[in-house]
């Protein structure tokens, strides 16, 4: 069965490029997700529930609110999208 996904669209702050990425619901809610800007290749942490980059789990809302901004094996789900899952 196909896993539920989210479509994430954002503007890269360093270069201003707007891009869309498909991420799994499981990784977004329980794992760690990074997306790479296809223009400048900057990596953006979208969620970090596995504490790869921080000492505390961080949701997307935590990251947006400015809380503190680590490594486990990544899973590439599509070009420019990397997810980490606690397996």
From TrEMBL:
Residues 1-87 form the DNL-type domain. The keyword tRNA processing does not apply. InterPro entries: Mt_import_TIM15, Znf_DNL-typ. GO terms for molecular function: protein-folding chaperone binding; zinc ion binding. PROSITE patterns: ZF_DNL. One of its GO terms (biological process) is protein stabilization. GO terms for cellular component: mitochondrion. Residues 65-87 are annotated as: Disordered. Pfam families: zf-DNL. PANTHER family: DNL-TYPE ZINC FINGER PROTEIN. This is Zf-DNL-domain-containing protein. It comes from Terfezia boudieri ATCC MYA-4762.
